[in-house]
Structures are given as C-alpha cells and as structure tokens.
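B., you asked whether I could sanity-check this one before it goes into the benchmark set. Here's the sequence:
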Amino acid sequence: MAWTCAAAPARASGCSRRCAGDGSRASISARACWRRRAPRIRRLRGCGLTPAPIPFAADFDLAVSFGALGHFLPAERPAVFAGVYRALRPGGLFAFPTGVRPSPASVWYWAALGFDVVMRVRNAVWRPPFVMYYRANPLPAVREDLVRAGFTVDVVDLAVRVPRSSGPRYRLILARKPPGA
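And here's what the prediction gave me:
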C-alpha cells in the first residue's frame, strides 16, 4: 500500500508544466496537469509507507500532504521533513492540514485514543505493521521538527464547519523554505 506522493511545480511566471504523482490519487495530479496543459506527467515509484528519500532536489515550489503524517512514527518525521525541504526550491512552501487535539471531555479524544490503542495492539501481533496513528503528531512536536529541518513555520486556523461543536477543529501548517536557502 502506498500513500499519495504528488507534486506540481509552478514558477512565478506560470506553471512549468511538470507534475508527479503516485498512489491511488495519481489521477488527481494527472487532472491538475491536464488542466494546465502539461506535456508530460511523471509517475513516481517507491513512495511507500517509509521515510525513503524523496527523489527530487529543489524541483518544486509547493508540496502538500493530506493525512500522510499519520503513517509515520514520530522518529521518522525528521527524515520526511528533510526530504520535503530538499525537494523544494528556495522560498518553496510545504502545506498540510492538521486537526486540533480535542479535549479529554470530548468523544473525539476517546475515539482517537481507542483507535491508536487498537492499532498498537494490532501491530504487536500482526506483521507487517501498518502505521496509522491519530495522536502521534502533536503540533508542538511537528513544528519543532519542521524548524529543525530548516523551515519557517506559520499555523493558520481554518474556519471549517463541524457538525457537532465538540468535533475537532483544523489548522493549516505552512512551512516555508527560506528564500536564500
């Protein structure tokens, strides 16, 4: 099973017409490139559930992730962030949403804790392990790892309507590679 590994470079003067994608969502990258009339779409191989080196160096202005962090253990985050940093051009942006950790008085807190406990038990008895944890990436630790990788980090609260007021809120993490890096 692979997680989505997609990137679409763009320059200030317009799209450079190069996209890359892997996993079940490669078609999303293909559609984005088609809309920009990209002459080629490059499909990546080897973007599995490991912090394997990202095969790019200063190729992209934007990298995004939707849910992939839950598939990495906290000890693997620095390698993942270092790879994204390497793949970005100076001034490039790494953007990803994250949920605000709910209060222990919330049902969401206990649901996430229960899921993580079940996954840990499952991984202790079943091989190969499948890493997917909801509580393994608290914002202070993620921010610290991003800063150590060289990013400047901004956090934006997202105004996402949640059906129940006790539900999780969301934030957008904006990690920028410094322009002179």
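One thing to flag: The CA atoms of residues 5 and 22 lie 5 Å apart. Otherwise nothing jumped out at me.
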